[in-house]
Amino acid sequence: MHPHQPQSTLDTYQQSRDARRHQLERQDDSRSPAQRDRDRILHSSAFRRLAGITQVVAPSEGYVFHTRLTHTLEVAQIARRIAERFCREVPELVAKLGGIDPDTVEAAALAHDLGHPPFGHTGERTLNVISKAHSNSGVFEGFEGNAQSFRIITTLAAHRDVYPGLNLTRATLNASLKYPWFQDSDYPAHYGNKYGVYRSEQADYDFARAGVTDLHKTLEAELMDYADDVAYSVYDLDDFYRVGMIPLDRLAYDGISLTSFLQAWKEDAAQGSDITPEHIDAHQEAFQDLLDSLVIDEVYRGTFEQRALLRTRASSLIRDWIMAVRLQVPQQGHSALDIPHHTRMDIAFLKRIVREYLLGNPRLATQRHGQEQIITSLFETYLQAVCEHNDHLVPARFNQELERLSTPRVNQIPSDDAIRLAVDIVAHFTDAQALHMYRRLSGIAPGAISDFIDV
């Protein structure tokens, strides 16, 4: 619950935070409601598939990069530790702000990336563009990874045959909503095109947000979101520094390189970011200090001593950022989570380095082009199968949704429901499954009839 709500509303929400939309639960369970939520997510097939989903590069790369699964586990660990610290150090303030349950925060963190499709952000962008291009309604929402995560935990995941989804508590559903609004909501402009729920999950959203009268994230959702930023900015940078793709040493020791990097950032910041060129100028010395604290004074060769040193420095930075955040009674329009401005700038700086040196790397660009072709081909194949009610081609786990689809076409144009089902099918693959199915369906490598296809 967001603390801007009236106290009477806070009390009502607190009493109902353990409620579930489908009241069909076992009573002989020693776990708390939030612990049951955490365990349901942890044991779901949607969670397991994250091991095969790109974080920045594919899990199949020879080097041991982070996957969506390892990233998710790190986010959950960081988020839980912050929540536990607040409950231990400022319990009265925690109670005043509506409460924090570390199990709820951890459950939300475990769920926050479930909706990522094959090939990470490349798959997300491609599915969004291609699905919208096939819709003629003018209201189809396309694809958004955060909204897909909410759809998975409320609609697509299987837990009991008497209801869809995982039947999580109101508190966990709310904590999983990093962007608690629809695409067509009047939300703050600095969030860009991000939104957290499709209209198809309107009933689940209404249940989760009962008693909430604005678009603010809950405090538990803010903790999860901050932990996500911390994990992403440190560990992705660490991965690619060690393989020589991000030149932290050059930025640290070559003033011209750092000046050029910051100038490019300022030019982008001048185009509507919540970080201004003045902010960047004011923190240039701090950025230099941050770089100095991360790099080592010799060429990285992967020795035990070097690996231990990098791990120590990364751990120290994460610890500093965990300890930097505070709780506060918020003023109107502000968060109860008080993140110092210099911490926000440091996180933004490291995220910008990853974007500048990695996401624009030509070696990744050629991969992304191929991944776009795979996603597009799979989507068009499965959309045709859905429109033809081809239950031999549509994966068995989606046959129930296919049976419910009474009008797959309207005037020869695919219906939005048919497009959504095709999106769900493609989005549920891992990277390796998507590549395998593309080769099989296109005839490039049809395989054998005895091949096991886990779909």
Structure, described:
There is one protein chain. This protein has helices at residues 7-16, 33-42, 45-48, 68-89, 91-96, 102-111, 120-134, 145-156, 170-175, 202-208, 219-242, 248-253, 255-269, 277-282, 284-294, 304-324, 341-359, 362-387, 399-404, 416-427, 431-442, and strands at residues 326-327, 337-338, 409-410, 413-414. Helix content is 57%, strand content 2%. The protein has a two-stranded antiparallel sheet with strand order 1-2. A two-stranded antiparallel sheet has the order 3-4. The two termini are 37 Å apart.
Concise structural overview:
The protein has 455 residues and is mainly α. The chain contains 21 helices and four strands. The strands form two sheets. It has a two-stranded antiparallel ribbon with strand order 1-2.
